[in-house]
Amino acid sequence: MVYVPVDRYEEAYQRILAGAHKTNHTTITAAAASATIATTVVVFASIDADSICGLRILTSLFKRDSVGHKVIPVTNYADIQAAGAQVASRQTRTLVFLNCGGQVDIQDLVALRDDLIVVIIDSHRPLNLYNVYWNEQVLCLDDGDVENNMGALRSAFEDIEFGSDVNASDNESGEDEDDDQEEEEDDDNAAGAKRRSSNGDDGAEEAPRQARKKRRRAADMDPDEFIQMQRARARKREQRAQNQQLIQAYYTQGSYYGQSCALSALVLSEQLGIPPSPDHVWWATVGATSQFVLQLIDADGYAVVVARMRDLVKR
Questions:
Q1: Are 289 and 121 contacting, i.e. CB atoms less than 8 angstroms apart?
Q2: How would residue 32 be classed by pLDDT, with cut points 50, 70 and 90?
């Protein structure tokens, strides 16, 4: 699981802290530690009102926990790529994307080192499924939509990305029966194959060879077994096509918006055990209200936010 469910935002923040504390411990001398904090977090923030409000909440948490950070305002993905030099710093351990980055495969924009994580807090939908399901270093905060409504989509994505290819499985089936026969041929042709590889002809020789193996397996196979195998392959192809259609429908359904970035930051603050301050509640309210004013969410969605903010104000 690489997306972060709404009740586990704290886990993403703890990974940010782990990277920050490790860097400060290993890269700063004891004499300089009291005066210098390594910049371990780079925040790419969209310039919309919701993102700015979310940024205010998040940076207040960073200051509270002495997390060195730098904020880079962005208006498009070219701005993120242009700031790629920030990622090259060995001190940078976390990249945070506020209301940006969620709809593209983030690995197309930044090169991920082994010690680098990405946290995406983006209200834009639909999310790119590679950010949601692919890489353990990419933590995409879910507002409940992924967890509750995208089970079938997850199965489709994992089948396409991690399931065996139909043609590949067909090529692999029955290979054990051919191994003994092919081993002798491979030994006899090893020198010639090496010469063909150096001349760039190895790929041209491989396709006819695989075709011959498939025909030989089909000829040696029991007819009933062969028919069952073909039916299984047809079912697998049909399922794969259905999965591709499901994913295509998800991406082409049109743009919509999920939970406010500022509200997500407020939820994180609450999970960290921080009592909701007037400033945090105000920024979350402004962020969510901006979505409603810009008609990014409907009245019913905004009513839920208003009720929640009212409860916080009463505390």
A1: no
A2: very low
Angle, helices 278-293 vs 49-64, to 10°: value is 160
Residue whose C-alpha is closest to residue 144's, from 267, 11, 5, 250: 5
Give buried/exposed letters for 258-297 (b at 16+ CB in 10 A, else e).
bbbbbbbbbbbbebeeeebeeebbbbbbbbbbbbbeeebb
Mean confidence (pLDDT) of the chain: 83
Q: Are 17 and 67 in contact (CB under 8 A)?
A: yes
Q: Which has the closest alpha carbon to 209: 184, 187, 182?
A: 182
Confidence of residue 176 (pLDDT cuts 50, 70, 90): very low
Task: Please say whether the dihedral angle defined by the alpha carbons of residues 300, 154, 255 and 77, taken in this order, is positive or negative.
Answer: positive
H/E stretch holding 160 reads helix 151-162
Residue 301 pLDDT: 92
The pTM (predicted TM-score) of the whole model is 0.80
Residue 141's nearest CA partner among 261, 24, 293, 229 is 261
Spatial separation of the C-alpha atoms in residues 41 and 25, rounded to whole Å: 15
